[in-house]
Write a structure and sequence with these properties.
The protein has helices at residues 15-22, 79-92, 111-120, 157-164, 169-188, 208-217, 241-255, 266-275, 285-288, 320-324, 327-334, 347-357; strands at 31-34, 62-63, 69-70, 96-99, 124-129, 147-151, 193-200, 222-227, 261-264, 289-292, 297-299, 311-314. The chain is of the alpha/beta class and 366 residues long. It has one domain (2-357): Aldolase class I (TIM Barrel), CATH 3.20.20.70. The strands form two sheets. It has a ten-stranded mixed sheet with strand order 9-8-7-6-5-4-1-10-11-12. The protein has a two-stranded antiparallel sheet with strand order 2-3. The longest helix has 20 residues, at 169-188.
């Protein structure tokens, strides 16, 4: 089932790494998020990197000498550095690469070459994209990814253009390309899991049902409903949460079936927003999923990306493998307390990791 892709229990399949964490030893992350481009061909109103009250906007935006702010910096990982990172990942035993943003991965002029290289190196690959651009040769590459998620975030072209600050025609392009990817996956007989992402905001919550309908018609296997993350926490949803829940129930009732799922992550995200800071000390997630930004810096996670709080390394003057083996990395992880984060959207995985690392009372009384 598609919902298994969002299980919080995945760390249990890496017990060798759990054993090392019990000893206080660093581990090779099974999962690396690689942000090829901070530049995007859209400008989503809810983007945590670009909006002024986003959690990851601190060092993402560029402050110009004239006092203006560039919220869409033309900043990318150079091709040679990206090749180096992918080779390091394969050599160290990283299992999976997620190409995501930051910006839009397909804006990087050499992204198809990097996608092919990652596959050739034996890395499991995933892509988060707005789906507007498909470059020549994608048919021989994308069906071999493990999963692809197309960000839609609307049910009509009018709302799509409003929430993503783009032209209305891109709505149809994204859906047409989703259908094309679905057809290519079917033709290849691939197990690639194709989904659609829908970040719920006060501006698009009325179109949840329509968004699910469009995702279903486009051939996706699921749609993931989440919630906008901002420094306003759950305030934007006060007064509309009940209506959102009703629309989610209607969508699940009408579209959930053997071949398509409506995955409700909205409630989990609202719970995270309401909680604010974590109620535990250890952040195990940072060990299992490393985030490399388009600025070539390493961060604890996407929530803390492009902030001084989250920065743990800089690959501009060293390789990824050198940073992995460095005292800087060990010290950054050893001294970090998860409670210092103002919010966390990885509470589920962190609680599982902590329960596996810390021996419970009377552990043998199963």
């Amino acid at each position: 089932m598609s919902s298994e892709a969002y299980s919080s229990l995945k760390a249990g399949w890496h017990l060798d790494k759990i054993a090392l964490l019990r000893l206080g030893e660093p581990i090779v992350p099974p999962h690396v998020q690689l942000i090829l481009s901070d530049l995007c061909n859209q400008d989503c109103a809810f983007c945590s990197y670009r909006m002024s009250n986003g959690f990851s906007s601190e060092n993402f935006v560029e402050h110009k000498p004239d006092g203006t702010i560039n919220r869409n910096p033309n900043r990318m990982i150079p091709f040679g550095k990206a090749v180096e990172i992918l080779h390091d990942c394969a050599a160290m035993g990283v299992k999976a690469i997620q190409f995501t943003g930051g910006g839009e991965p397909t804006v990087h002029p050499r992204h198809m070459d990097l996608f092919r290289l990652a596959l050739d190196l034996g890395l499991e690959c995933a892509l988060v994209t707005n789906g507007v651009v498909l470059r020549n040769g994608w048919e021989s590459v994308l069906p071999h990814f493990k999963w692809i998620r197309v960000s839609l975030d609307a049910g009509t072209q009018e709302t799509y253009a409003k929430v993503r600050n783009t032209n209305q025609s891109s709505f149809g392009k994204a859906l047409d390309n989703t259908k094309a990817i679905a057809d290519a996956i079917a033709k290849e007989g691939s197990d690639c899991l194709l989904g659609v992402g829908y970040v719920v905001t006060p501006d698009n919550c009325h179109e949840i049902w329509q968004g699910c309908s469009e995702a279903h018609k486009a051939g996706a296997k699921y749609i993931r409903l989440s919630a906008m993350f901002s420094k306003d926490f759950d305030a934007p949803f006060l007064g509309v949460e009940d209506k959102i829940n009703e629309r989610i129930r209607e969508a699940k009732s009408d579209f959930d079936c053997r071949t398509f799922q409506v995955i409700d992550r909205f409630h989990d995200r609202i719970s995270d927003l309401e909680q604010h800071a974590p109620d535990y000390d250890r952040c195990g997630y940072q060990h299992f999923n490393v985030y490399i930004g388009g600025d070539q810096k390493v961060y604890r996670c996407c929530n803390t990306a492009y902030t001084l709080h989250g920065e743990v390394g800089d690959l501009r003057q060293q390789t990824f493998s050198e940073w992995m083996a460095s005292a800087q990395r060990r010290e950054a992880y050893a001294t970090f307390n998860a409670r210092s984060c103002s919010i966390c959207q990885f509470n589920g995985p962190n609680r599982v990791i902590n329960s596996l690392v810390d021996e419970p009372l009377h552990a043998n009384f199963v």
